[in-house]
Amino acid sequence: MATPTLDKEDAKPEAGFADTPYITVTFRIRRFNPEVSADATWEDFQFEIDPKERVLDGLHKIKWDLDGSLTFRRSCAHGICGSDAMRINGKNRLACKTLIKDINPAKPITVEPIKGLTVLKDLVVDMDPFFQAYRDVMPFLVTTGNEPTRERLQSAEDRERFDDTTKCILCAACTSSCPVFWNDGQYFGPAAIVNAHRFIFDSRDEAGEQRLEILNDKDGVWRCRTTFNCTDACPRGIEVTKAIQEVKRALITRRF
Amino acid sequence: MKIHKYDTVIVGAGGAGMRAAIEATKRSRTAVLTKLYPTRSHTGAAQGGMAAALANVEEDNWEWHTFDTIKGGDYLVDQDAAEILAKEAIDAVLDLEKMGLPFNRTPDGTIDQRRFGGHSRNHGEAPVRRSCYAADRTGHMILQTLYQNCVKEGVEFFNEFYVLDQLIVEENGVKKSAGVVAYELATGEIHVFQAKAVIYASGGTGKFFKVTSNAHTLTGDGQAACYRRGIPLEDMEFFQFHPTGIWRMGILLTEGARGEGGILRNKDGERFMEKYAPVMKDLASRDVVSRSIYTEIREGRGCGPEGDHVYLDLTHLPPEQLDAKLPDITEFARTYLGIEPYTDPIPIQPTAHYAMGGIPTNVEGEVLADNTTVVPGLYAAGEVACVSVHGANRLGTNSLLDINVFGRRAGIAAAEYSAKADFVELPENPAGLVASLVEQLRDSQGTERVSDIRRELQETMDANVMVFRTEQTIKTAVEKIGELRARYKNVSVQDKGKRFNTDLLEAIELGNLLDLAEVMAVSALARKESRGGHYREDFPNRDDVNFMRHTMAYREVADDGKDSIRLDYKPVVQTRYQPMERKY
Predict the structure, then answer these.
(1) Residue B543 belongs to domain with CATH number
(2) Which of B150, B407, B555, B570 could form a disulfide with B16 if both were Cys (CB 3.0 to 4.6 A apart)?
(3) Which residues span the domain enclosing B454?
(4) pLDDT tens by residue, A36-76
(5) What residues form DSSP beta bridges with B366?
(6) Do B451 and B550 fall into the same domain?
(7) Does the CB of A203 have a partner CB in chain B at under 8 Å?
(8) Quick check: helix, strand or coil at residue B538?
């Protein structure tokens, strides 16, 4: 006997797994392909899907069954790699972490590229400026003196101090939800500040002052207007605005 | 077509590729070609930890780790390589800490450690705390830390460049690597990278299965590029099925959940692993646990109306412990299943997880053209490679270790080689194969669709060459794959453009999956025994007399252009451990 196959379409309901029939949904997708036209347009796709599936599953259904030219980035499909941040029903989310049932599938579901970065094709944007801002905040541990033979010691409390900002997956959902960033792409943006925070508050690091100086720039933390869009957008649940505020406070008190 | 010249080219920017890049960049002019932005690599999805006998929390040593690795691999492990892995593990973890990795800490401030499957004290006496971890995001932290250090070292990346061909040139009767050919996703342009040394670190090939923990992008591109150019593939029949994937979706739930005290239960609530592995119980090696789960399911003790899964029970663990040690996987259960792990058990099933086999290398990461001959200038490390430290079954936490130990070794060896070697002259029309592949797929008016062939491939792999195999099921798979390969010749894509043509790339990736699936099935058919992750119901015992040897699969091309697979075998390196019956 072969290994049991597990994709039976006639699965019966089970506790916690109410058997939801397939529903018809409409995905309204912002399309853009400069090889074809200089203008972006909306295109509707209607198809059947189990609402417990992800928006990413819906996009794959379109790409695989309806229109192979639909273009988007994705990889892990469970919220870890950060490839598929997009604007879904007007809000930045990861397509692989958003279930269709949770976003009112009775109405058309709009899917657009994230804002503030140049759109290259359909849902694909130019990520280079985003990663450049990240690289500009010295996102690596800086230490001086001789290295210890064994590990550097760090108390559990000191480790906990920067735990929240280590979760960042660089998906750009926060930065591209920020109205300041939309208006001025020179602003470092929340994600770069989050990654600076991760090192500024690491007890092992010795370059906090340098990073603070970088962020004291006119395009640095002071541009933040605490609209909390970034915190709402973060698929990892990082308290982004709080981290930015902590960096601001460190700049004033020079204590971190 | 553009031509670039680098001393060292690294293909892939996951853990192994970036660990290699950090070493190679210091020593040689290095380029990293990666089909994804580096932080998107699937190393980031690894959760539970990285094994090293630091002995921070209890007595441990690298010799015990070596033994566990060999036993875990059902004695198909090359023992010299396993010894290097376990010995260098300690520095590999300390190096990452010094690079900034935020490990969880003990009350003393040292790196904390926890239990993991198959890792034991004193040759199997009891579980040992050997896994160094950062909550259940150890892979994420490793990937981020290595990328951070690549930024620090100024590593040069070519993002969204797909390597589609390995250039091999024969000089004075010796096959040498001359470079690689890559396709730039943004423009559709083809680039030739002439390089003295090439390192493959492009990851696994799990997408030929349907229920898998692997990313959509894990399509065996490096294995396929080398295999088509005559490099053998070793032990491809050995694939690991991780016991705890989310039911139907395959998303990984770390073994660390059981390391923290989680228990597997059947529909009667019974802790069934006690029957199969009295000492290690839920922490037996992954092949053993996955077979036990399917035995429960087949004997009617599976959960749910279909009886097609079992439960991972964390409800007896304090919520604070789940929040502190297992935050991500508990979140996955909430997001994807709508289940609260504090109070409800999580439905799970084994999920296709890891290729033990791959491009054969020696312990310096040098690729082998046969059982002994090195291909000068060609290296591989990580899941794409087979060194072989995992043998017939990899232990949990040994893959994050593998990428760091052998990624580093390959990076150093390749850069040292390129410091003294000359460039090998490029073959005539170096981009020819890739150009015709791309053109043919883009211009094809064929009637077959990529998604149909891929779906059928994944279904046949799940049904026929998963946890339980027989001659009959494997033959069914071989036949089906043959049919699909024939249909693939008639495949076409809808997107005919040059810019970000992911439709075209999915077609190319499918070609890779088909070739590798065939190698896997053919290798599995010939191995008439059960060992580690390869379980044959028609040959349920391990057969050391006939099969204590590595499979080496070669692609042969006949004069009429038809290809076939030739199997050969390579002896296992045994040093100090004699094969014994494996009990947990």
Answers:
(1) 1.20.58.100
(2) B407
(3) 432-571
(4) 999 999 999 999 999 999 999 999 999 999 999 999 999 99
(5) B379
(6) yes
(7) no
(8) coil
